[in-house]
Design goal:
164 residues; elongated
Amino acid sequence: MNPTKTIKVLAIIALVFGILGLIGSVLAVLGGGAVTAVSQNEEIMSQIANDEDVSASLSELNNAIGQDVSAEEATAGAGVLFMAAGIIGIISSIFGILEGVFGLKAAKGDVSGASKAFVIGIIEIVIAVIGVFAGAGLVSAIINIAIAALYTYCAKQIKDGAAE
């Protein structure tokens, strides 16, 4: 296995997914903001509240949590959750982009880039292990750990000058 070629492939994949994730996450934040804004519009909310399907869903929600939740509160809550998920996604995507950039620098033989890629790889392994306990699917978690370990191993090889 050639660490330089392997980290280059992994870095390109991380970069592509990081950029796509960033776009999706920004859209989630914007969508969450739009949903939250809609929850403040009385005319729209009265139309939503009068919808039979929405009323049934609100009844199920109220029974599940044991409280009376209005359509406005449920809509605003959903918007805030979308925004929070989007912000977490933005942070994750930026991390993926950095992983790609430093991985590509390492693939070019840049020892400084390889050192940074190695640190990011260690962080990625920790995050992947946390994912196992945070409810990520087992197969997905194992794949994430394996990819993170391979990325980190390649960065270490390049950093130590063992790559050909």
